[in-house]
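Weekly structure sync, notes
Attendees: PL (lead), two postdocs, one rotation student
Agenda item 3: pending single-chain targets
PL asked that the sequence for the first pending target be pasted directly into the notes so everyone works from the same version. It is reproduced below exactly as submitted, 404 residues in total.
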Amino acid sequence: MKILGIETSCDETALSIINATGTGDMPRFDVLSYSVLSQIKIHKQYGGVFPQLAKREHQKNLIPILKKTLKEAGEEKAAKKHFKTNVATKIMKILEREPELLLHFLKYVPTIARPKIDAIAVTSGPGLEPALWVGINFAKALGEMWGIPVIPINHMEGHIVSVLLSQKNGGEVPTSHQQVKRVEAGVYPKFPALALLVSGGHTELALVKKWGSYKIVGETRDDAVGEAFDKVARMLELPYPGGPHISGLSEAHRNAIEVSNVYKLPRPMIHSGNLDFSFAGLKTAVLYTLKKMKVVNAEAKQTIAREFEEAIIEVLVSKTRKAIETYKAKSLIVGGGVIANTALRRAFTHLAEEMEISLHIPQAHVTTDNALMIAMAGFMKIKNKPNILKKKISIKAEGKLRLS
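Predicted structure, written out during the meeting:
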């Protein structure tokens, strides 16, 4: 089964085509094409993502990326017939709020034949609603043009199923689709599993009873981990996105011959008795610490970055340990962009070894937002609900969509 994945939940415009085979319990994924275009350089000057700017960039980028994706997958073939006027009318209606995308769409898509794709999977939430709508309407327009069913996917479920790719080649970021082509599923998690999802806008613990069955058992009450990293990075006058820069300073501090750790930060809610998180207070503690300092030099930044990172890690590990014990989880899944953090990966590797459960972390190139994980989640959804391909689903952008 060939599936086209579309992801536009934030500031990455991404498309992917996979050939998925096997069962819902033991899937196999052959990656035929894989494209991600980041908007970081555009939003960097503002220190964060502007939803309307992200929407505009998605409109501009989707057709060029579609062309690249179809070509890499061997699906870009010239059309032999002109498309019908009534189809054009429907597409114009679907894309009426994305005029730039509509213009590019009508110039390119009618010139190619219907690709051999069985389904289109698109992120419907959570995320920035203006950005989500672009991807959703694009998917709807393609579905109408080609007569292909469109399936809505929860972005967070995508992060969970992303661990199904094998972790060969050291998880290096691919420079072309050939480097991820024909990637088999890795070691399958045992159920019940516990998933810790750490991304820019989310920090949550989910009990995974089986693929497609999720229950949130813990979540942040304010800032997510990724948000906290970005905000503290701004305090330290580091570029956006802040996570990699704080990680770099922390590692430099750990590798120093002589290290000092004179700034002690709180571990919010670590003894709260529940599985929820709170990182706003930790961010405020960093702010007060900086205000008390006369000079914030390079060494001080390294020390604060390390202490902040270790406070985050200690809380995440503590809550995850408790959740594993409470729900008797047999596997631990950790997904989302923040798991690219080196120290966090080490900490969860040690936790899994200590608790003698299997650890499942996605390859580095699928930790951040991408359409590969959305296409994979689409296949798992079809396997769980085969009739979904026969239904015309009403899809809308849901910025605060939850796992269920």
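Discussion points:
- DSSP finds twelve helices and ten strands in the chain.
- The chain has a mean pLDDT of 90.
Action: rotation student to compare against the earlier draft before next sync.
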